[in-house]
Amino acid sequence: MRGWVLALCAAVSLAGCTGQSVWAPDDAVQRAAYRHDGPTRLTLYTMINNRTGAGAHSSLMINGSQRVIFDPAGSFKHETLPERNDVVYGITPPVEDVYTRYHARESYHVQVQKLDVSPQTAERVMQLAQSYGAVPPAQCARSTSTILSQVFPQNVSATWSPVKLAEQFATLPNVSEQRLREYDSDDNSKVLEEWDPTRYAQNRKAAAEQDTAVAKQATDG
């Protein structure tokens, strides 16, 4: 089974199966920390080959005291996003958007499964991800399922298969699901190259100022 997974990961050019040990400094992690105002939630991403239906990568976004993505052996990296052994920090809404678009393309789509959980559960999953360590190549689903199996032992067991993990996660009560499809080139490097967080922040600030001005004008009128 392990040989089959290694062969699969070698055959695809998707994220997952190229992990390395990294450790961002404390100040970078603290600056990047982002707390999302939505519900405490686990979001399981499964990248699936459009032609064969095979799973290519698994990752997990955790929204608790802050929002991070556990991207085991993943290739999603940007200089503005600190990482500690496959846990990526600073997952703001635009980063979440870029992350999914980075993986969805002509040959792959992204299965997104969301589960609202208690703050305590979210924190436990986050701590397990942070303490897991650098994930070896080809163990994206294995590492993610190992973490989830410690929290949901009745529904999730350790598996090497991203699709199998998604099927297990779907058995948890109140899991919602959607599929994200894009038809860009399989060369996904341009997604990160073209992403400019500074420009995005400036655009958001300008839009907020415009909204404030419009609201003030309406009130004065």
Question: How would you describe this structure to a colleague?
Answer:
- The chain is globular, with a radius of gyration of 18 Å.
- The chain has 221 residues and is α+β, with helices and mostly antiparallel strands.
- Strands 4-5-3-2-1-6-7 form a seven-stranded antiparallel sheet, with helices on both faces.
- Mean pLDDT is 86; it is low at 1-18.
- Helix 4 (119-132) runs antiparallel to helix 5 (140-151).
- It starts with a helix and ends with a helix.
- It has eight helices and seven strands; from the N terminus they run H-H-E-E-E-E-E-H-E-H-H-H-E-H-H.
- The chain has helices spanning 2-11, 26-32, 93-103, 119-132, 140-151, 162-169, 189-194, 197-220; strands spanning 41-49, 55-63, 67-70, 83-84, 87-89, 108-116, 176-180.
Series of H and E elements:
HHEEEEEHEHHHEHH
Look at the structure and give the mean pLDDT: 86
Overall SS class? alpha+beta
Number of helices: 8
The coarse overall form would be: globular
- Which runs of at least 5 residues are low in confidence (pLDDT < 50)? 1-18
How are the SSEs ordered, and which strands pair?
Layout: H1 2-11, H2 26-32, E1 41-49, E2 55-63, E3 67-70, E4 83-84, E5 87-89, H3 93-103, E6 108-116, H4 119-132, H5 140-151, H6 162-169, E7 176-180, H7 189-194, H8 197-220
Antiparallel strand pairs: 1-2, 1-6, 2-3, 3-5, 4-5, 6-7
Helix pairs in contact: 4-5
